[in-house]
């Protein structure tokens, strides 16, 4: 005996179900209706869209949104796990990158400076959650941007959107060009040097870390080329010049606040003491000659550079884990000479972004 079950309801059954749905929607909270399906709101008297899909093409500047209307708006990004596309896997970083706003920073001299800042904010996402409301990252940041300075803004914003987005881990990065007035080597001229700096705050597994990233631009004279040039002069009376190139070191440090405050200017000083051949801003002839002498007094391979920077960082109690990555953008070769040195577990990595070294450049 075969039993067949009718799966398609007839008209009477559909009408009865519609009556039940209308009765429920009439007494339910609009937010509940929206979570089930925003289209249900149109089943209620006075909410029908009779001309759908023949829609108005006129923009109404006077239309206002109340809470009841807002509750009907679809929100797929915060939808149920059934809407997840692909693997139900945990996402380490999801958020927004490079939204910009002016922020205030303290200087070592006791003043402050307001700088255009590029912000990246991300959180982790549980495997069973569809997505995050990314505008909350920006809204949380703007809430504190006018009231606090740099790391304080980051801490307050991170607390806000980490809680609102119900995430395990959260990260913020702020990038900006920090100006410092530099005096020329001999002429007494002064000019503004701009340092690319990033501030990073990471909240992971209940532990919060603060980091500073600095791009330091310098000239590197090849010690081998210098000796070969001097050999040509000494043995054959042949004029020769050693090759030098613009070079970039990216110095990333975890702050150890038990040692005191590490100012941006302090990190720049550490770099300059380690490798004093920083590129110059204002130059007269006597400065150019001085720079040639300074380079001759400090010839340096890329291996020497990362170790020199590391020596300065290891000596400072305000610096915890660190990474130094350097690129000497060769004038002799058609390729660059590169090196990476890390201290501690924070920056240790078996892999690098394929274009990591290409990012070590000076835009001019």
TrEMBL record:
<dbReference type="Pfam" id="PF02649">
    <property type="entry name" value="GCHY-1"/>
</dbReference>
<protein>
    <recommendedName>
        <fullName>GTP cyclohydrolase FolE2</fullName>
        <ecNumber>3.5.4.16</ecNumber>
    </recommendedName>
</protein>
<dbReference type="InterPro" id="IPR003801">
    <property type="entry name" value="GTP_cyclohydrolase_FolE2/MptA"/>
</dbReference>
<feature type="site" description="May be catalytically important">
    <location>
        <position position="222"/>
    </location>
</feature>
<comment type="pathway">
    <text>Cofactor biosynthesis; 7,8-dihydroneopterin triphosphate biosynthesis; 7,8-dihydroneopterin triphosphate from GTP: step 1/1.</text>
</comment>
<keyword id="KW-0378">Hydrolase</keyword>
<dbReference type="InterPro" id="IPR022838">
    <property type="entry name" value="GTP_cyclohydrolase_FolE2"/>
</dbReference>
<dbReference type="GO" id="GO:0003934">
    <property type="term" value="F:GTP cyclohydrolase I activity"/>
</dbReference>
<dbReference type="GO" id="GO:0046654">
    <property type="term" value="P:tetrahydrofolate biosynthetic process"/>
</dbReference>
<comment type="function">
    <text>Converts GTP to 7,8-dihydroneopterin triphosphate.</text>
</comment>
<comment type="similarity">
    <text>Belongs to the GTP cyclohydrolase IV family.</text>
</comment>
């Amino acid at each position: 005996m075969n039993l067949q079950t009718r799966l398609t309801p007839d008209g009477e059954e559909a009408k009865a179900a519609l009556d039940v749905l209308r009765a429920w929607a009439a007494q339910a909270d609009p937010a509940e209706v929206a979570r089930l399906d925003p289209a249900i709101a149109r089943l209620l008297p006075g909410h029908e869209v009779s001309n759908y899909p023949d829609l108005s093409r006129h923009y109404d500047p006077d239309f206002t949104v109340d809470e009841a209307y807002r509750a009907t708006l679809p929100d797929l990004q915060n939808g149920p796990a059934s809407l997840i596309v692909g693997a139900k896997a945990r996402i380490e970083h999801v958020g927004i990158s490079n939204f910009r706003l002016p922020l205030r920073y303290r200087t070592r001299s006791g003043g402050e400076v307001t700088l255009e800042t590029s912000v990246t904010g991300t959180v982790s996402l549980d495997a069973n959650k569809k997505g995050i409301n990314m505008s909350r990252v920006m809204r949380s940041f703007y809430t504190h941007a006018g009231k606090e300075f740099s790391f304080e803004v980051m801490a307050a914003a991170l607390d806000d959107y980490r809680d609102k987005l119900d995430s395990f881990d959260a990260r913020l990065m702020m990038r900006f060009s920090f100006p410092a007035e530099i005096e020329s080597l001999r002429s007494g001229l002064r000019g503004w040097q701009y340092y690319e700096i990033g501030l990073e705050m990471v909240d992971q597994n209940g532990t919060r870390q603060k980091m500073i990233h600095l791009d330091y631009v310098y000239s590197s004279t090849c010690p081998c080329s210098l000796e070969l040039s001097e050999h040509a002069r000494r043995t054959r009376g042949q004029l020769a010049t050693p090759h030098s190139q613009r070079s970039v070191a990216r110095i990333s440090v975890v702050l150890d606040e038990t040692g005191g405050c590490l100012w941006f200017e302090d990190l720049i000083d550490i770099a300059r003491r380690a490798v004093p051949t920083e590129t110059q801003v204002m130059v007269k002839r006597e400065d150019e000659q001085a720079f040639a002498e300074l380079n001759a007094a400090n010839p340096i391979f890329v291996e020497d550079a990362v170790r020199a920077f590391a020596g300065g960082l290891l000596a400072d109690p305000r610096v915890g884990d660190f990474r130094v990555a350097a690129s000497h953008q060769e004038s002799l070769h058609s390729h660059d000479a590169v090196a990476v040195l890390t201290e501690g577990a924070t920056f240790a990595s078996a892999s690098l972004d394929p274009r990591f070294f290409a990012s070590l450049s000076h835009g001019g």
